Structures are given as C-alpha cells and as structure tokens.
C-alpha cells in the first residue's frame, strides 16, 4: 500500500504512542494499515484540523468523510437529539426518512427520483451491481484499471486498486482512464477510452458473460483524478446504454459538493442537458462520519428490481443516521459550501500550478507533470522526466514531507505517483495559505 507505515519499523513516536502502536498491531491484525512512515496519533478534531496526543495541530487536507468539518456541532446535536427520541429501521412508517429522501432526490435531475438507503458506500455499490445484473440477467461489468469501489465481496471484485492479492473475476473488464499527461492529449485519450469500452463490451459478450453495465467514480479519483476533457463520461455512458447496460456513477468521493457542484457527474453534462446516470451511489460524506449511504435511481429501474427481489438493511436509513444526513444538507446549504469549495479550490489549484511552474523554472524539487482539480478535489502528478515517466517515490516523499509539516495528504493513481488532496469542505482561506506555504517548503526540501 502506498503511503503506509511498515509494521515493526522504528519510529520517533512518544513512548505512550509507541505502546498504543504495539497494542494495535497485536489486536487489530495485519489487514489494517496505518498512514505515513511515521504514524499520527490523533485524539480530537475540529473543522479542517486534527490534533495529536501532544496537542499539535495538523491541517487535514485529505479526509472527505467529515465533509462539513470534524466534530461538526450541528451534526452532533441532530444525532444526539434523535437518539433521545427514536432510532429504528425503515419498516415502520416514520416522517424523517421520507422527508430526507424527498429532499435528497430533489437534488438530482429526472428520472433519478427514488432512494434506497444502506450504511456504507461498499453496501451501496453492492446493491447497485445487484440491480444492474438483475436487469441484464448477466454479470459482465466494466471498471477502470485502478478503480476502488469498496470492500464487500462484490465491490472488491471491481476494485483492482486493492492489488494482486485481490484477483478479479473474468466477468469484470478493465479499461484505462483517460491520461492527460502521457499520449497525444486529452481528446486522443478520450477516443482511446471510448474505444476500450466498446471492445470490453464485445469481449464480455463473446465470452458468454453478457453486459450489465459500467461503474465509474465520477472523477476517477483512484486512477489519479482524471477530469478532462469534460463530457467524456457522458459520451461513455451513451455507448453503455446503446449496448443495453446501465451506467453507475460512484459519487462516494466526489458527491455532496466536493467538486463545487452537488455531484461529480455534473461536470460531464454541460453539453448534454438533462443527461443523468442510470444509478448513483452515495456514501462517506453523506452523514459526516455517521454511517449512511444510498443508491439513487429511477422508479422504473427500482420497480423492476423490487418486484422480484426483496431488499432490506436494518441500519440503512435509521432515524439517527438520517438526522446526521439532514444536518449535512443544512450545513452545505446554509454555509454555501458549494460556492466555498469552488472558490477555495480555485485558490489551491492556481497556487499549486504557480508553485509547479516556479519549481520547473528554478530546476528545484521533484518534477511536477500536471496539477489537476475540481473544487476541493485536487491532485499533483509527479514524473521523473519530460516524457511523463511516473515517479511514485517523489509522491511518497512529498506525502511524508508534508506530514512532517503537519499537513495531511495521501498518494494514489494507477502508478501511485499522484498526490491526493481532498480536505473537508470547510477548508478556508487561512487553511489554503498554510497548505500552499507548506507545499512550497516541502518541495524545496526535496
């Protein structure tokens, strides 16, 4: 795993943190991973800041789960109040889940008018796959080559980023995400992307698996945040629909205002008014850390599934989770966090591009091939030469150099050479200035 602590490695952690690390490794087991060469022992959070056991303030430029800020008072109050009144599942007639579903689906274009709730993004992905495969009576699915969609068996089967120890079944076809760094440019990359989708559909059909659809993270974040050219996912969706499949937009990471719009797929619909995915998967930031997720779809698709398949999730849509989710929508609306994410994101994007250009002029620091961003979702891609040869070592060194300056990011991408910058939506101007200053220092130190 990129950006991971190596179990048993020596650290400079204080004695009490080292003891906690030993206890953790003893009882949590090897599947768990810790971020950073030198792990961070956190004890509390507030807004876009996290604090360690010694009281040091870390700037959180990575965690999108607390979308409206760590320890958000409105979310805390809403959940606490609801737990003192009623917290049960969706098989009783209750007001809150209906009110929230109406409010949530009202944020989507037609025909996306219904919601099914679950607890995690993985569960929602699992359900979306079941719906698509039931509709097609076929298992064949297309995903991008370094996609991550979750940890259930079905979601892991379509998550090649989990590594070689997570084999993919033959009814999952991989396509390369459009690459704006290597090759003949974004338009050529789109043509290649669409050609790969057509070929994958033909392969799945020829091998007898049939074709249920394609699921894509709407900003291709695990593939390195591939954003251009805008519209390529809409054009891909048309190919999928023409072959009888469903398009599933995984909005677990880009959803709820991350890109400066409610949903990441909206970046691709400017030249296709009224276009919408067939299914949308929501998760992580939906409850600001309280487990809740959803699949959004049309009445026609849900009716075809629900008339033949029973689905129930005990805690999906429970009253306390719905209270958290409603508070998140309140925060985003009342604090104008969509506009805020777009504005502060543009400051970060411009600042990072200026730093990259300055570094290139001076010949200092690791080579930055490209800086990309949409709202408060940004990436910095490192290459060892002008041809774009991936430089994962540079990315990991920058992650650790920023961590030394108490700024938290991670690295991802097909080649693990891309910084992933994805702070809470409440990241403000002062946070952006601190981040850019720290980035400049870390780059110069490399």
Detailed description of the structure:
This protein has a 7-stranded mixed sheet with strand order 4-10-9-8-7-5-6, with helices on both faces. The protein has a 4-stranded mixed sheet with strand order 1-2-3-13. It has 446 residues and is of the alpha/beta class. It contains 12 helices and 15 strands. The two termini are 22 Å apart. The protein folds into 2 domains: 15-68 and 336-445, Aspartate Aminotransferase, domain 1 (Alpha-Beta Complex), CATH 3.90.1150.10; 73-334, Type I PLP-dependent aspartate aminotransferase-like (Major domain) (Aspartate Aminotransferase, domain 2).
Counting DSSP H or I runs of 4 or more residues, the number of helices is 12
Mean of residue pLDDT values: 94
Under CATH, the homologous superfamily of the largest domain reads Type I PLP-dependent aspartate aminotransferase-like (Major domain)
CATH architecture of the largest domain: 3-Layer(aba) Sandwich
Q: What share of the residues lie within helices?
A: 25-40%
Pfam families: Aminotran_3 (PF00202)
Keywords: Aminotransferase, Pyridoxal phosphate, Transferase
GO molecular function: pyridoxal phosphate binding; transaminase activity
Protein name: Aspartate aminotransferase family protein
